[in-house]
Amino acid sequence: MRVRIPNGVMRPFLIVTVAGGLLSGACELDKLDQPALVGPSETGLSVQMVAFPDVLNADGISQAEVEMVLRDSSGNPVSGRAVLFCVTPTVPAPPAGVPPPSVVVGECERANESGEASLTPKSGFTFVGPVQSGIVMATNTSGAARVVWQAGTNHNTVIVIAVRTYGIDASRGFLQTVQIFQQ
Questions:
Q1: 0.85 cut: is pTM over it?
Q2: Which long-range contacts (CB under 8 A, 24 or more apart) does 92-96 make?
Q3: Residue 144 to residue 149: CA distance in whole angstroms
Q4: Could you tell me if 178 and 166 are in contact, meaning their C-beta atoms sit under 8 angstroms apart?
Q5: By the 8 A CB rule, do 138 and 163 touch?
Q6: pLDDT digits (tens, 9 = 90+) for 145-177
Q7: Which stretch of 58-62, 85-89, 160-164, 178-182 has the lowest confidence by average pLDDT?
Q8: What is the CATH number of domain 46-182?
Q9: Cα 37 to the center of its chain, rounded Å
């Protein structure tokens, strides 16, 4: 095949144009090969926690319900899973306008240091039993488990309630926490 080069067209320009045309036909962005999925890289559990109300009077009577909902990697409720609920040592509340300190969940207990406030099972939910560091509940068919926190009389205190499901590597720690403010 003969290619005529018109007068005034430089050879490097022509070579780049022809090479670019050939390469553009080889690049197809609409046909990508997807790699095979290997599976979840972690436990595939989702934990959602809420305390209602999350602000209590420090009167020794007020109560807050803490609900935890456990879902699998597809978003379906996980029922029948044993879950440890516990209270971490209390943290003094910061002054107004100052963000709360980040809480490190370490040691757990069923009640605060003075024993005046405590975590108890919510009626209507499956109570598995007490353990030294908290109480164990089982998730229901909706993946939910609930406990009740009864306020103490210590004012301006942040109560941190943590959960950990059984059957997960214990070295991984707690999955979720929720805070309740006692005023």
A1: no
A2: 92/156, 92/157, 92/158, 93/156, 93/157, 93/158, 93/181, 93/183
A3: 16
A4: no
A5: no
A6: 999 999 888 888 888 888 888 765 555 566 688
A7: 85-89
A8: 2.60.40.10
A9: 23
N-terminal to C-terminal alpha carbon distance within the chain: 90
DSSP collapsed to 3 states, the chain: CCCCCCCCCCHHHHHHHHHHHHHHHHCCCCCCCCCCCCCCCCCCCEEEEEEECCEECCCCCCEEEEEEEEECCCCCECCCCEEEEEECCCEECCCCCCCCCCCCCCCCECECCCCCCEEEECCCCEEEEEECCEEEEECCCCCEEEEEEECCCCCCEEEEEEEEECCCCHHHCCCEEEEEEEC
Give the mean pLDDT of the chain.
75
pLDDT, average across residues 46-57: 91
For residue 5, what pLDDT is reported? Answer: 58
Token pair listed for 143: 């993946």
